[in-house]
Sequence to fold (296 residues):
Amino acid sequence: MLPITLKQLESFVAVAEEENFLRAAKRLHRSQSAISSQVQMLEQQLGVPLFHRTTRSVRATAGGTRLLGVARSVLARLDNVVLDLRAEEALQRGRLIVACTPSCASNLLPGLLRDYQERYPNITLEVREAYAIGMYDMLRQEEADIAIGPIDRGESDFTCRKLQDDPYAVIMSRDYPLAGRAEIAMQDIVDEPHVVLERESAIYESMVQLFAEQGRVWRPKFELSHHQSLYGLVSAGLGVTVMPKSALPPESADRFHVARLVEPERSRELGLIFVKGNTLSPAAEAFSTLAAERQN
Fold:
């Protein structure tokens, strides 16, 4: 690769278009000798003359004419990139892909997205929903810029910015035999039929651990893929479910009895997650800042 510099290309294009070294120098706010030196160095590196020079005129040679079209294109494309980068830095342009878990998508994320869109209307937003395992995989595969969901402290490849604690609750139909209790211990529900989200969800592994602490093996009665299906079965009285409070549907007070899980108490951390070592884009950094502001 020839060591051609931007100054050389700028000087060459200016001289070719102005057909005069003095006018080219004035256009670029440089000295005439500097312009002449840059053009001479470019000619030496290419090994061909770029201009026909007389005392009265400067005209591009055949080689100079060929180079002129390419040089104009290179400089124009570079200018466009610079303008785009500056617009993105000023949050006047850009794209942000946010990965999130279903519970965050239905509760924590909507208000955050609304405020972000109002503050930065020129940023294109995309949301990609997955359970915790899939959410982290999206970040690894660079399919998302940032994620909002449960923090897994065992994932050493990620930087996490905690937003809030999310305590676990025991959820059941309003006429379930255990309904009415404000607090329920884990030992009181180990023999109840359990409804749970599929194994890719973070809550599934938590339930395995909770049952193991009680000396029991976790065998859920129903394993489902979607929150809507899960809550439908719970509402019908087919079992109980243990879920983070943030995962409760908006109409939960009318449909369910919700008790605090005690003995042991459990909660998860919700936060912003991105690949460790990655510098967040201006759009992603603004998203992170806004999310923290909303928690204060």
Observations:
- Residues 166-268 form a domain with the D-Maltodextrin-Binding Protein; domain 2 fold (CATH 3.40.190.10).
- The first strand starts at residue 51 and ends at 53.
